[in-house]
Design goal:
Radius of gyration: 18 Å
Order of helices and strands: HHHHHH
Distance between the termini: 57 Å
Largest sheet: none
Number of domains: 1
């Protein structure tokens, strides 16, 4: 289990990382802190779930769902597209280490381990994408419920 000091450091590191990616992606300057806050919050949520759950997929899905939901709320409040908040905050979750180690194992002809790590990385990427898709769809239904009426009033 993570202690509060470790969670605080993780929050700060995630905030700095997401802020850096927001600057790198040339997001509007006034929105960088919002992106960083949503990314750091989702990262802490991921760390807590990862320490409680044995699955590697569920924490990634839940964190990306929370991240996309926060981004949709920021998009409505700040009148900017949600992708401005989602993409920089999602980058630290991307399983680059898995792809790297998969390639190392392929080069060392350790095919079993490469397939295992590669499949894990693909499942993580699918969980991240699925979390964003579900949260975005959920937000569209909630925020645009007038569009989904079956019978027009009038």
């Amino acid at each position: 289990m993570l202690d509060f000091k470790e969670l605080g450091l993780q929050f700060i590191y995630a905030f700095i990382a997401v802020y850096g990616f927001a600057v790198l992606f040339n997001s509007p300057r006034k929105l960088n802190a919002y992106s960083a806050l949503s990314g750091a919050t989702a990262w802490i949520f991921y760390k807590i779930l990862a320490s409680l759950d044995n699955s590697i997929i569920v924490p990634y899905f839940a964190a990306s769902f929370l991240l996309a939901l926060i981004s949709e709320i920021y998009a409505r409040i700040l009148k900017h597209p949600s992708i401005v908040f989602t993409i920089p905050a999602l980058i630290p979750f991307v399983p680059g280490y898995g792809i790297y180690y998969m390639m190392i194992d392929l080069m060392n002809k350790n095919y079993e381990k490469a397939i295992q790590i590669g499949a894990e990385s693909v499942f993580i990427a699918i969980a991240l994408a699925s979390g964003v898709i579900v949260a975005t769809s959920f937000a569209r239904i909630i925020f645009h419920k007038k569009r989904f009426r079956l019978v027009k009033k009038g």
